[in-house]
Amino acid sequence: MDMVAHIHTNTSQRPMTTDHDILTLAQWFSPAFPVGAFAYSHGLETAIHAGTITNAQSLQDWLSDVLTFGSGRNDCILLRVAYASESKQMLIATNDAAHAVSASAERLLETQLQGAAFNTTTTAIWGGEQNALCYPVAVGAAAAQNRINVDLTCALYLQAFASNLVSAAVRAVPLGQTDGQSILAALTPICEEIAKETRNATLDDLHSSALLSDIAAMKHETLQPRIFRS
User: Fold this and answer.
1) Number of structural domains the chain divides into
2) I need a labelling partner for 209 at 20 to 30 A (CA). Which of 30, 44, 74, 76 fits?
3) What is the predicted pLDDT for the residue at 17?
C-alpha cells in the first residue's frame, strides 16, 4: 500500500445538516460519480446464479443481512474511524484494517479500486492529497477534510451501497424497477439505524457474520459466465 502523504488535523464538522453538505454527498454517491460501482455486485451475482436470490423478498433479506451483519456495518465503522483519524499513522492503521476484513480477493479489489477512483476525483475537485485508500476510508477522510457531518455521510454511504446492489440485482435476477425501488426504500431505515449504532464504534468492533455473503464473494472468483467484477 502506498504511504498516505497527508492527513487532516481538523475533524470538526458543521452542525447537521447544511444544504451544501447534502448536495456534496449526493454528488459523491451519485451513480454518475466515477468510482465504477456499477461493475461490482459484492458477490451478489453468485447468489443469483445459485438460485438463492430469485425475487424481491429474497433480495431484500440478503441485503438486509449484508448491511446489518456484514460489510455494510464494517464499512460504516471504517468510515467513522477514518473521519476521526488525527494522524497519518491512524489513517494507515484504519486502511490496513479495511484490507484485513475484506473477505475475498475480489472484495479487496472492489474496495481498493473504488477508493482510488473516489480519491482521484475528490482531490482534483475539492483538494487534498492523493492517497491509496480503501473506499470507506477514502470517503471518511474526504468528509473530514471538507467538514461534512459524519452521521449524514455514513447514512448516505450505506444507502448508496445498497442502491448499487439493488441496481445489480434488477439487471441480473431480473427484477422490475418498481420492485428495486421498493426494496431500497425498505432498507433505508436500516441504513439510518446502522449509522446511529456505530457512532462510538472502534476498529475492535469490526466483524462479519454474514457468512453466506462472504462465501458468495469467494465463489465469484471462479464463476463463469459472469457480468460483474465481484
Assistant:
1) 1
2) 30
3) 52
